[in-house]
Design brief:
193 residues; mainly alpha; homodimer
Chain lengths: 193, 193
């Protein structure tokens, strides 16, 4: 009974966030390969059987961690957007916030957008849509309707591309990620009518 | 002596491309994880010791495959560029060619740009620089000097972002990758002066 006596016990509702937090830590330390349900329970200090009610398999845990990432991204974009002086500034601020988000947590960014992203989890799909909605909503607030879809995709592509190049170490640059994001975002904004 | 008698023998100079070709096939089938020097020699039909002269370790082989990818990308961008009617069209054509390249060979694209990319191989660095040079050269041919670096980075970011989102299955879209690339590239070009 050694394992049980040293395990923490959680109130219903606290265990899930504790497991997601433990998974996030492991992800940052060693990527998705380092992540197993076993390692997560050890890190969270709970019994090996504890997570199965919430996460029947590793994929389900990864999906929840990615959804957690999209919820944070949505909040980050919303805050950047609402602090800006006008609609165009808001769009630029979202772009910079997106790149900063990726560079501050590359492992989470890779999980959210990489090919290893788990599929077919409604919670994850909804969280991703909500984050995209912050961008699409801002575009819709000042772009003409016929161009909105292309403008939103272009804005997403440029910051996603810059973030990916930075996170994957493809750029030799003196400027900080935020400065690069500001320059690139300003340039793209000139094309938005 | 069974292994030796069934192994192909290559003239000096033919073995290296044969090994790279075998590695490319394995990469497309199962990603970098599926790739070992052992598996590559089996696929190429040569003895297990054959590659060590060219590739002392797996990293060196991956670097050569990635360099091969950048050489192909450079050629693809050059061809697209030189078939265009004018400088702006050439830049747009390069963007579309970049996205098509990624979508036609996602495993190679991921190796070239992913975090698993091998470091510190001069051949690879030179091949990457040469591919980027096709874009930078076109930008320099018609953009004012003060903006060239930002314009080139913006163009690269937008097509790299779109390619990454497509390759990683992040977009639900009806349009083909090439059509999306054309729309996004045209929009960004409006901002290039």
């Amino acid at each position: 009974m050694y394992t049980m006596s040293t395990s923490k016990s959680y109130h219903h509702g606290d265990l899930r966030p504790a497991l997601i937090q433990a998974a996030l830590e492991l992800l940052r330390e060693g990527g998705t390969e380092a992540l197993s349900l076993r390692a997560v329970t050890r890190r969270a200090g709970v019994s090996a059987m504890a997570p199965y009610r919430h996460f029947p398999e590793k994929e389900a845990l990864l999906a929840s961690v990615a959804a957690h990432g999209f919820n944070r991204l949505r909040a980050t974009l919303s805050t950047a957007d609402s602090n800006a002086a006008d609609a165009r500034e808001a769009l630029a601020a979202q772009g910079v916030a997106y790149v900063r988000f990726a560079c501050e947590d590359p492992a989470l960014f890779r999980l959210m957008f990489g090919a290893a992203q788990p599929r077919n989890y409604p919670e994850l799909g909804a969280a991703g849509d909500a984050a995209y909605g912050v961008l699409a909503g801002r575009v819709a607030s000042f772009c003409r309707e016929a161009e909105r879809a292309d403008v939103a995709l272009t804005c997403w592509s440029v910051v996603h591309g810059l973030a990916s190049l930075l996170v994957d170490g493809q750029l030799r640059q003196d400027a900080s990620p935020v400065m690069l994001a500001e320059r690139v975002t300003r340039l793209v904004l000139r094309s938005v009518r």
